[in-house]
Design a protein that fits this description.
single chain, mainly alpha
Length: 118
């Protein structure tokens, strides 16, 4: 059970103010179109892309998709369309960032291989 050890209590005590603020921010009535059943079916595609981006072995490449997934989770739990809209924007930025890291990483590997004569 959580909170039995002192370090767990410290983590819970630090997280509680953030959770309270986040709970206050959520509003079930905002942009309800993005929280319905049809929207969840359509939003499965960006969620799948984010899950694939997290699996890639790119240094610092899975933080942005994870943050977008957290925003989606909050939006779905709170049934807040504004949070889901924010998650969609974060998803776009995360996927662009992941693509950038892939291109830059591939070019660095290519240059490194050219330097050693491969």
């Amino acid at each position: 059970m959580y909170g039995e050890r002192p370090e767990e209590r410290d983590v819970i005590a630090r997280a509680l103010p953030w959770l309270v603020r986040t709970e206050r921010w959520g509003n079930e009535r905002r942009l309800a179109l993005l929280t319905g059943r049809r929207a969840r079916v359509v939003l499965a595609f960006p969620l799948l892309l984010l899950a694939r981006a997290i699996m890639l072995p790119i240094p610092f490449g899975n933080v942005a998709p994870a943050l977008a997934l957290i925003a989606f989770a909050f939006g779905f739990m709170a049934r807040d369309g504004a949070a889901i809209l924010l998650a969609l924007i974060l998803s776009l930025a995360a996927l662009v960032w992941t693509g950038f890291l892939l291109v830059v990483g591939a070019s660095l590997i290519d240059r490194g291989l050219a330097l050693i004569g491969w």
